[in-house]
Amino acid sequence: MTDSNTSMIMNDREIAERLAFLRLSPRDIDLLKALHSSLEGRHAAFIDDFYIQLQNFDTTRNLLTDPVLVERLKCKQEAYFDRLIAGNYDLDYTKDRINIGVTHHRIGLKPQWYLGAYHYYLAWLLPEIQQQLANDQNACTDTMQAVIKVILFDIELAVDAYFHADHEMLRLLAQVFQSNIEGVIITDIRRQILHVNNKVAAIAGYRNEDLIGQPITLLLPAQERETFISHWQDIKQGEPWQGESLLQHSQGNLFPAWINISGVKDETGTVTHFIVEFSDISAYRTAQEALSQRTEELARSNKELEQFAYVASHDLQEPLRMVASFTQLLSRRYRGKLDSDADEFIHYAVDGATRMQTLINDLLAYSRIGSRNKPFEPVNLNSVLQRALANLHVAIEESHAKIVYDELPNTHGDLTQLTQLFQNLIGNAVKFRGELPPEIGIKASDADKCWRIEIQDNGIGIAPEFFDRIFVIFQRLHNKEDYPGTGIGLSICKKIIERHGGQIEVKSDRGQGATFIFTLLKTLTEETN
Amino acid sequence: MSIENIGRVAEFLLVEDNPGDVRLTCEALTESKVKNNLSIVGDGMEAMAFLHREGKYADAPRPDVILLDLNLPKKNGLEVLAEIKADSNLKRIPVVIITSSEAEQDVLKTYDLHVNCYVNKPVDLEQFIKVVQSIETFWLTIVKLPSEIMD
Question: I need a labelling partner for A177 at 20 to 30 A (CA). Which of A158, A404, B6, B16 fits?
Fold first, then answer.
């Protein structure tokens, strides 16, 4: 039982009142019971006949296509008519009738078909009664009257239930209309406002009564009206329109709104009403603008930072060159001529200046990836690999490294940077070797929009807790005596890969070798550098 | 025949604002085997005054080779180079750009202005000395200079 009919269930007193109004007397009940027992089992024939009749009309035929369903309905209907004249019209009976009305509403069977069923029933039943009670004119008339009374009682219940359910549905839809988070306006075909929900007042400032009967253009600023009317021609043809427009608040200020307009069609397909839904997107716009401003600022500050790193490292080179040159000159000219402390001091000064030069050169190389870019061009990764191997040939020969590689694909990118990428990764695989000569495998695979490249080695490996750290500029895991270097290589790799729309990760463990896996976007649109 | 064989001291003009670099160049040239005289000016205006023998430079020698830095106060190296190469009296003096700039456009612009060679200042002292000495050796012992003919 649904919520919509519970509110309709009446109590015993109301039922008694209704029956009294119809003057259903105890004698009527007795006559109905007598009729009921005389018709025991005979309703089935009537029902069969009735269902043949139902097949003659489209509406009912379309509801009765499933034979299993038809059989079930027939049984129910037989029980329905059987119960109609059984003489017991209590609360339970009432609930049953109300339920049937609600069900009819749910399946879309209008009361006309239902009244028709009573008509057929009477047309079958009245001659029956006449025949049975031909000898008792009074009983015959009274029985007929009693039957008509209970049918009217029934019709009233079922029709009430049908319209009650209809009303409940409308109430539900009205609730949806009112509580919609968008402003909703229903207009007639001339765009005169018929209904507005509460949100319209909240968004546009107008009271409902200020809008009813007004043209919808009331909400539009003058400059938007013409464009709007032109959209309306399409909407009239049945095409919904969606878009952004400025609307005018009752106080005169304009606000950006997202608007959806659609036509409501009648059964013949003619548009009879328009539904205008809109929401105020000022907050969204403001947020969007703030976001794009922030993104722009971020890009600018990133660029400035890169520029700063470049300029700083470039300009720092000059004074550093002085420091380094003159400490070297000092060492060259005065080593062994002053005392041993002086020699030591000079040694540290020369060493520090030299290391700082390396750091600054590395920083310069790193910042160049962002600020001194060549445009992307078609690149064959096989030739990239060959260039990298040529640059590394001394290290490869000295370490007796064995390098195995697949056929690599063609892609887009910066040839110099990609060469550096391969050179750094293969160079690391050679540099961080274990006891055995390095064995390095290079594989490529297709990963949808990217190429996926793997460079695997049998070196000393990396403990997982350092996976993030190794890609950060100047982060090192080993002391300079064992493995020289500033810790720039992998951070340069990461920056090159990111510029090429890819990502890099590492799979490894201490002593287990390492596999560096990176992706490169197959087609690149040149970023604005 | 090169300048070391004509029996006079070779004249260098160094246009350099950084005293450190001036000193380093001097150090490199003192170890030189060719007798040379190094004149030094600190900015582009001074350089032009020297070459035109204006004011205090009335008795300035005509340089055999000019060593020119790019980043100079008052008048930068590119302007000085352009003026020298546009001056019929000066344009035959070889100009060697010696700078820390590795910018491609600086290399291209100076050659467009007919520079005679472009050299980067090495970061390392040993290298720096080597480069300065190479410049000297090349221009003073290998190259045939126009000044030998004019004299």
Answer: A158
